[in-house]
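Anyone opening a protein record will find just a pair of labelled lines. A complete record is shown below as an example:
=====
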Amino acid sequence: MLATLWVTTQCNMKCRYCYEGHDKTNRMMSIETADKSIQYIMKHFNELNEDTLIINFHGGEPLLQFDLIKYITEEFKQIFSSSSKRLMFGLTTNGILLDEKIEEYLCKNFYYSLSASLDGNKLINDTNRMLKNGRGTYDLIIDKFVSLLKIRQDVRIRMTFNTDTVHNLYESVKHLVKIGFNTIIPVADYFDDRWDKHHIDILHKEAEKIFEMFKREKEKNSNLSISIVDVEIYKKGNCGGGITTLNIDPDGDIYPCTYVVEDEEYRIGNIDTGINKVKLQKIHSIFNTKNEICNDCSYYNYCSATRCKLINKVLTNNFNIPSPVMCAMENIMYKFSKYNLKVS
């Protein structure tokens, strides 16, 4: 089970492509809501009778609430101290607030995922990732991320690209490989409405160059992983939103999916009242509908767009129509997974 706790919606940056928008609500989870969230998550987890609980911290920038994150982490560790079940923690940070104390704590406790956001070299990163005053962030965070890497070789770099930076995707990945990062996760900005055939063609060409580099670098570093060309593909079942995955916002409201948090239409309950099973069932009935536009695609059973109907709705205003760039990304990953004979 994966429970994502939105400890804040506040952020200390103003990235151009932020899908949460620039007019954030600036809400902070209280310790009272945190305590109730812990209780609700444990109740839900025990009812599911699963073997592993993953607690993922989200924002805004979650490290604005580091003290609360530490409190919640220690509370869960105490609960699981005598349990045979597995407990894991995850977090993605923009790095601005990282210091020696925070780095040490995260590296010691966060083994589901410890992710840092960085889009490439200084020029590319600072195109979109900046402070509220417009200052680029590369120089503020690169040494901190390298410091993390020295402690944890598995620190993940999450890099976002859009139509402004896709033509530099290969160079951006190459830069991160040269620094020494082993796990690089390029992610398209699905909310960029300028994606068209021209930009998608560029994306395919950049992916080809990344794949050729990956094959060369993999011979020198067996730990290297670049997700766009090195992801294990598997058949996907129906979404477990609201069942095996929960999103709890700073006020304790519950949502099935990260992309719909703060959208009242998809609020399925609250930590005080529990989940509205009728509303959840209605949402899940949408998950069972077919993407007729995708029927002839050989990748249908492996694709996120045929499974994640809520993101389709957010991006195209139709539950059963994927966005073109999401389709392109999925097909790129499928192509290189087939090449590596990883499809199962």
User: Anything to note?
Assistant: The first helix runs from residue 31 to 48. The chain has a mean pLDDT of 94. The longest strand covers residues 86-93.
